[in-house]
Amino acid sequence: MHDDIRYxxxxxxVAEIREFYTHIVAYxxxxxxxxxxxxxxxxxxxxxxxxxxxxxxxxxxxxxETYGLRGDWEERKIAELLGEKPKNATRDDLFDxxxxx
Length: 101
Description:
Layout: H1 2-42, H2 49-67, H3 73-82
Helix pairs in contact: 1-2
């Protein structure tokens, strides 16, 4: 039973990472095209910097959600302060046998 829970948590984590990498690939492909369009067709003003910067903010937020603080950090912090184990397994707990009750 515990292996099923850990497997599902790991599967969800892999899906989150895959989605982030897909986002990066789309960002690079689209913005590479926009830079080429800016350089070869319109020249002059570097307007391609605007979508690069705007979308870059979205990439930064996605990276933060994927690798930084996660949505359940408040619950984990409360459990830590109370000296309890968190209810949901975190990515650090996925392969820690002592974290699974």
